């Protein structure tokens, strides 16, 4: 079997470098100065954690289309803030009631529910603020376009809508189309938006955009299938979050629907289609996006 | 005493007409179609309720500067969505734990805490979505500017930050500067942003902008002082929300700090300054903004 693109030195060092850039940018943009320790809570929710997959997708997509790198860094951080806020709210007692996230106590466990609620709300607002710098470094049209993409991916027609379906699905045996539809909203929309916000930093012809959008959709679905697999095959210490909680909560998953082996085959198939869509763009600089698809398939946490 | 501007037929009919426009626009933009009844919950949180003060400020400010009316209607609804989501989250058990809002059961009482949390999150995202229409009806620069104004007013440097200070202030005897600083964030930022988002729909010289901004700041402070007064002088049925809850929660208020009579005098003084700042703009069409300041001073709920 050929070496995975995600194992190459080039990708490993790119990933490490970009993760550092994102971490530094987040640290400078999520200020500790917000009143009454709100900034401290926001930083706890955002910094020192996670694979930063969504920011990496934004940055790699920007590189693939040779877009505006400074705008992409803002978009990368904005997407991560939306992801981070969703985890904070999702972990609260009225939702998943989880105590462990990224190997640390969840925000409401550490700071109380009210602060968790407010910090999540403030992180969402900050995401949009980041997309409209006041230093004239980004044109209004690009800012507006990124705000719209992020709002659609985060709201009722995206992530929040998917979470509502998720809540309503506990104990219900969804069929595969319904399960896929839920995940297209719950996790897929923001992953796909990450790719497309990176793409928005350049002028790209519609046909190429459509293929990059398909890449994002296939990658998003594969990500969720792998997530369901890891939930049953990996321990909490490795995941950095509570393992086995889907089954415990009686939530429908790709594993409960298809079995472990078929779920793995399905993830591989989705990733193959992501690679195909990407190759069909005929863009010269897509190695990193290819490598990210491999990385999603091979992740262990 | 001369008749208040807020009692004139012209203002009463303007207000009624604009409230209807805002209601219709909100009803068309907050779709019931969102998955798993999330749209139903969002509509419950937003429609048929409230004085719509913030939207009225946006629309009146737009008229005063002869700005883009269609953009102002979007901005008006966006501001109201932020206000509505903040009420939903603020009423939750981990915050104010309130059961009555706009004369109806609060969202979490009616639909459960998880749906309330998600609907609030989705309303915030929708606010930003509204500011970037995909029909080309608004320029990117204006969309971007409005997004930035709204994000700053809603986030850690505005409303969410003020709520964090509010939470941290229970049982603490704040002095007047601290109390004012809290309210400048908690309620003032969004009221002032309402004015300034309306102003942004036209090109306005900086000196006039500064005066309109001062009008918004004074009006915002007066609003909160009146709110504190109503909390002790008015019953729950008239308010449509639980009366007396600040005292019950041992929260510092202008009434607990200054006494009822001095608080009323202070509110009048702030409103005088709002009128003065507005008059100093020398704009020809400020009657409605003047009338809104009177309306804030004389409101009974």
Summarize the structure.
Chain A has 301 residues and is an all-alpha fold. Chain A is 70% helix and 1% strand. Chain A has one domain (5-298): Farnesyl Diphosphate Synthase, CATH 1.10.600.10.
Question: How does this structure look, described?
Answer:
2 copies of one chain form a homodimer. Chain A has 301 residues and is mainly alpha-helical. The first copy, chain A, has a single domain (5-298), classed as Farnesyl Diphosphate Synthase (Orthogonal Bundle), CATH 1.10.600. Chain A is 70% helix and 1% strand. Chain A is built from 15 helices and 2 strands. A two-stranded antiparallel sheet of chain A has the order 1-2. In chain A, a hairpin with a 2-residue loop joins strand 1 and strand 2 (104-105). In chain A, helix 10 packs antiparallel against helix 14 (260-279). The model of chain A has no long low-confidence stretch (mean pLDDT 94). At the A-B interface, helix 2, helix 4, helix 6, helix 7 and helix 8 of A face helix 2, helix 4, helix 6, helix 7 and helix 8 of B.
Which quaternary structure do these chains form? homodimer
**CATH fold call of chain A:** Farnesyl Diphosphate Synthase
Elements of chain A, N to C (H/E): HHHHEEHHHHHHHHHHH
Strand content of chain A: under 5%
Largest interface summary: A-B, 57 and 57 residues
Q: In total, how many domains does the architecture of chain A comprise? A: 1
């Amino acid at each position: 079997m050929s070496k995975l693109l995600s194992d190459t030195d080039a990708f490993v060092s790119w990933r490490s470098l970009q993760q550092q850039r994102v971490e530094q940018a987040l640290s400078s943009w999520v200020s500790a100065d917000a009143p009454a320790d709100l900034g401290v809570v926001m930083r706890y929710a955002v910094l020192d954690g996670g694979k930063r997959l969504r920011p990496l997708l934004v940055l790699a997509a920007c590189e693939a289309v040779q877009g505006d790198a400074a705008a992409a860094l803002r978009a990368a951080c904005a997407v991560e803030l939306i992801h981070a806020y969703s985890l904070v709210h999702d972990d609260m007692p009225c939702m998943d009631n989880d105590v462990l996230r990224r190997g640390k106590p969840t925000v409401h466990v550490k700071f109380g529910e009210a602060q968790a609620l407010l910090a999540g709300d403030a992180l969402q607002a900050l995401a949009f603020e980041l997309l409209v710098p006041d230093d004239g470094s980004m044109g209004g049209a690009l800012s507006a376009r990124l705000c719209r993409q992020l709002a659609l991916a985060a709201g009722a027609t995206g992530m929040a809508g998917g979470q509502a379906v998720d809540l309503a699905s506990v104990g219900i045996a969804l069929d595969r189309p319904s399960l896929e539809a839920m995940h297209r909203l719950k996790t897929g929309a923001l992953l796909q938006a990450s790719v497309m916000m990176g793409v928005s930093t350049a002028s790209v012809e519609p046909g190429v955009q459509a293929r990059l959008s398909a890449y994002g959709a296939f990658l998003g679905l594969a990500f969720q299938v792998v997530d369901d697999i890891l939930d049953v095959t990996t321990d909490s210490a490795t995941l950095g979050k509570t393992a086995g909680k889907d089954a415990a909560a009686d939530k429908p998953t790709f594993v409960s629907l298809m079995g472990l082996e078929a779920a793995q085959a399905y993830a591989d198939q989705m990733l193959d289609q992501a690679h195909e869509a990407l190759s069909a763009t005929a863009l010269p600089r897509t190695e990193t996006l290819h490598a990210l698809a491999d990385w999603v398939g091979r992740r262990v946490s």
